[in-house]
């Protein structure tokens, strides 16, 4: 009798193990193959029409599933669609237009197919229910996001990133021209195709993060790159806070009929020699070109890399990104131009935000964080993302010295429009010439300078100097005030 019971018990355990193994295989290994098999049209249609998890900002949905029609029980809806389009992207329920942005990068989590949700899938399977997707809580602050979006006029190609330098959390990230994701997420195939075709023909739109938007748009940085030169100079041991820099009105090069001019819009012409503080405050070109020629291409390139230019931003962004670059194999005029953020230097607005955040954070660059929490449908926390250091860009002493000089750019220099009463603000502006009288206008800075809480980076592409100046420092002030007065 005991042997019979023992055999029955063993058989039960074996059967349970086989059943659990089969479920595990279906849920973890076989599910993707089965669901993506082109012959399995039923599974494809069902997965496209299932309820997906919600993407939230400040507890409010910015992408959610709503009732569909008889053919497809649900579709995606995007409240304030254009404001968040560069982040959420869109999800085409009928499958005809694919998906972009976070809808694509976090598809496994939103459908419930990620490895972290394995036990949830098993539980739902035993209950006879369809697996449910997780909800994604972003780090975005809806108030700051909407303010930033409204600060870029319609018809202007612009980008704004607002970030916490101590944690890497992104409070706002916007770009224009934008679009309404609802037009592509419609269940009407012909309307979705027409909307997508129109968007594909719009230059600079934030439709695809890998070619546009704050994480992907590759732009000439202009004088904000001088922060890299400054860090390289101080770390070299050849320069210090008391160094006097040659500041000629223009720089000549042997054997070539080319002269690099100094910046004509500030006070650079008043001094033939300059301190770092004066050169940064007035964005003088020739002192920084001279530093690059003195240190050499490799020193500047290495420091650009240390600040993240051309590098991976880490695994907490959950969006495609552009890496930017500092060119190599430069002759003297090209190196001089590159040192002031011209020639073939390319960066994204997010990279400049990260660069500035590293200076604000004592030299440590944090991973840019866009997702705060992943929650199950019952609101149980699946994953809670924690701030993580990405790299050390410079030393605390160098970061503090640059911090002090950036305060002077606001107090005594070209970023005076960003000044906030009662708050010490640190900043750097930049103007990259594109030809035909057009420029990229930049602002990047942080506040309070003595205890940084927020970094603001603004890039306006293809405008004249006056328009750029109106849209950078004064708008940065509004964002600083909005964050600090919450």
Our estimate of the beta-strand percent is: 15-25%
Helix content: 25-40%
CATH architectural category of the domain at 222-370 and 390-484: 3-Layer(aba) Sandwich
> Which stretches are poorly predicted, pLDDT < 50 over at least 5 residues?
34-46
Would you count the extended β strands for me?
17
By DSSP (H or I, 4+ residues per run), the number of helices equals 18
What is the structural class? alpha+beta
| Overall geometric form | elongated
Rg on CA atoms, Å:
26 Å
CATH topology name of the domain at 222-370 and 390-484? Beta-lactamase
- The end-to-end distance, rounded to whole angstroms, is 74 Å
Strand order of the largest sheet: 3-2-1-4-12-13
Arithmetic mean pLDDT: 89
CATH class of the domain at 222-370 and 390-484: Alpha Beta
Largest sheet: 6 strands, mixed
The CATH homologous superfamily of the domain at 222-370 and 390-484 is called: DD-peptidase/beta-lactamase superfamily
